[in-house]
């Protein structure tokens, strides 16, 4: 089969890497890809936002399956465009992608199906939103309705922050149309967990659990980012929570979508917070997580390609997914300054040495190959995944590999998965 992977991040490198292992994968293209995908696939000079050119490429090159990595092309309706040309694509249609592209749509769906989530109000008038915040109990969480590059959520500790956030989003249009409507919701306390499900319209198969680290700095400080690291399985997840999650969240959300006339085919990833009362939905995503995918796929023993095909064909209930029981820890190496402005074009050294270490996988994100050298080209540069028999093992191993990679102004968190390491009880005292 000829496969096209759309996107250029670590998630897309991990998807291409996993698909490459399939005996049925003949050729893999990445649009536009990065220096890592160039080693295992053929990079194509088409951006993920150029939907028409992507359709043209898939048609001209007789691509059998296209896998869409990022949310933006899905929200823009890339799968509908492919379907109109009788091209097979993995991912939800524009209408199904609204579970992610409209927080208001997702909230209404959850309300209708009584899915546990934060209590929320939606506003399209900034005056009303401001008045609501005068009486609110802080902290409150303010979310832009639409996609805002992962930056559309603010936890407002007080009225002044709430006012400035509402003003920026709704009046100054910091996120363009995406912030014209907002959701203001209660702040939930607990620990976060990511679940990924392959959904075939009616049935689903869950992938293993994972946790990511969204804040830029150690100790969960600093601004929210796309993700600075991840690990799988999640240490705050168990079979009891999973049954509650399936009964109270997964089954109702699919039922709700079907009642709206929407058949969701693709990857549905509810971001959860585990509270004392059980899992609550923070958001729905309609594509693989980044960097969770870089931690999950090295643990997946099954061939990914037939799973993606079964998801499209409505046959996921006939598939089983086998997993490596070891733990995966993924550390993201970023350019200093990320998620703000950062310098790029820095030479990366030590990649080959690090890649030779056992049970290490290096996924590229913001990298570019120029004159036989690999250079940085973005905020998140690499994701280094290690497998280990325990979380300590995997952590130690991941950081050993990270220590061998160098580029100017490289920044990474030192505490990825640290909270999951069991605390030793000193029996001698
Ligand atoms: P979202 O994009 O909706 O997942 O929000 C981004 C991040 O904001 C989440 O990963 C949480 O850390 C935080 N967050 C979102 N909603 C809430 C909430 N209701 N209570 C507490 N934290 C939240």
Tell me roughly what share of residues is in helical segments. Answer: 25-40%
* Shape verdict: globular
| Ligands | adenosine monophosphate
Count of runs of 4 or more consecutive helical residues: 14
Number of DSSP strand runs: 24
Mean pLDDT: 96
> Strand pairing plus helix content: what structural class?
alpha+beta
Written account of the structure:
The chain is 30% helix and 27% strand. It has 429 residues and is an alpha+beta fold. The strands form six sheets. Strands 13, 16, 19, 20, 23 and 24 form a six-stranded antiparallel β-sheet that branches. It has a five-stranded parallel β-sheet with strand order 3-2-1-4-5. Strand 1 (2-7), helix 1 and strand 2 (27-32) form a beta-alpha-beta unit. Helix 8 (126-135) packs antiparallel against helix 9 (159-171). The longest helix is centred in the middle third of the chain and has 21 residues, at 239-259. It binds adenosine monophosphate. Adenosine monophosphate is lined by residues 118, 141, 143, 153, 185, 187-188, 192, 214, 271, 282-283.
């Amino acid at each position: 089969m000829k496969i096209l992977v759309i996107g250029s991040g670590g998630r897309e490198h991990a998807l291409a890497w996993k698909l490459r292992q399939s005996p049925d994968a003949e050729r893999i293209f990445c649009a536009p890809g990065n220096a890592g995908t160039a080693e295992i696939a053929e990079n194509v000079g088409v951006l993920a936002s150029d939907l028409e050119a992507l359709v043209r490429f898939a048609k001209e090159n007789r691509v059998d399956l296209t896998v869409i990595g990022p949310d933006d092309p899905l929200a823009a309706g890339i799968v509908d465009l492919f379907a109109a040309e009788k091209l097979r694509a993995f991912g939800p249609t524009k209408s199904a992608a609204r579970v992610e592209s409209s927080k208001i749509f997702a909230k209404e769906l959850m309300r209708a199906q009584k899915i546990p989530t934060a209590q929320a109000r939606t506003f399209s008038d900034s005056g009303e939103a401001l008045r609501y915040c005068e009486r609110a109990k802080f902290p409150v969480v303010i979310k832009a309705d639409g996609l805002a590059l992962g930056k559309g959520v603010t936890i407002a500790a007080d009225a002044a922050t709430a006012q400035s956030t509402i003003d920026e989003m709704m009046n100054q249009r910091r996120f363009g149309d995406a912030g014209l409507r907002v959701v203001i919701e209660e702040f939930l306390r607990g620990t976060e967990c990511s679940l990924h499900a392959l959904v075939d319209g009616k049935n689903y198969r869950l992938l293993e659990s994972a946790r990511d680290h969204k804040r830029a700095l150690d100790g969960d400080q600093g601004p929210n980012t796309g993700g600075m690291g991840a690990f799988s399985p999640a240490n705050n997840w168990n079979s009891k929570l999973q049954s509650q999650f399936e009964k109270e969240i997964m089954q109702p959300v699919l039922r709700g979508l079907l009642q709206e006339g929407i058949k969701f085919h693709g990857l549905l990833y509810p971001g959860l917070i585990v509270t004392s009362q059980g899992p609550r939905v923070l958001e729905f995503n309609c594509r693989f997580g980044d960097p969770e995918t870089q931690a999950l796929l090295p643990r997946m023993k099954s061939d990914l390609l037939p799973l993606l095909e079964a998801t499209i064909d409505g046959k996921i209930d006939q598939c089983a997914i086998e997993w490596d029981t070891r733990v995966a820890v993924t550390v993201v190496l970023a350019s200093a300054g990320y998620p703000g402005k950062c310098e790029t074009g820095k030479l990366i050294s030590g990649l080959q040495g690090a890649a030779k270490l056992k049970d290490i996988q290096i996924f590229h994100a913001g990298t570019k190959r120029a004159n036989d050298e690999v250079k940085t080209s973005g905020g998140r540069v690499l994701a280094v995944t290690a497998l280990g028999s325990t979380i300590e093992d995997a952590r130690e191993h991941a950081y050993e590999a990270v220590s061998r990679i160098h580029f100017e102004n490289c920044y990474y968190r030192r505490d990825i998965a640290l909270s999951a390491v069991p605390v030793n009880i000193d029996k001698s005292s």
